[in-house]
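Hi C.,

You asked whether I'd gotten around to modeling the 159-residue construct. I have! Everything is below, sequence then structure, no commentary in between.
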Amino acid sequence: MTDGNHSGFVGNKAHWPLAVLRVYTGVFFLIYGFGKLQRGGAFADGMSGFLNAQENTFGFYRGFIESVVLPNAGLFSYLVAFGETVLGIALILGLATRYAAFAGVFLVINFWFAKGLGFFGAMNHDVVWLSILLVLALMKAGHVYGLDGQLKNKYSFLA
């Protein structure tokens, strides 16, 4: 999958939908992550209330929420907000995209486990985000009009 000059995905017009998906996903996570950062303590309170109200949390995950997350809600709310914000910026820029997308997979899996929704549940958007993030990670989406493609020769971990 090269554009003829052996530079990988950089500038390959045929792969533009992958770049659109990457940037859209990045904007989504940036908007919601930054919004949570701006709310600060209010987000921590909201997250605690949300987690306490979840009746479907997967059983194996409930103990983790009750013994680790809720007693440290301030820290975890910051980690979620910061993680979503950084994920969004990385995806928009196409910088360290593979690593960012896999970090996003980790975030989304935790959201899914906390909600406890079925894989094919109509309201399980986490599985949709999980799928999108896996595609972005596995398809080298940062090489399509992104900084990964521009920097891959200088930094081998971006190749």
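If it helps when you're writing up: Helices lie at 16-39, 41-53, 59-69, 73-93, 97-115, 125-138, 147-151.

Thanks,
B.
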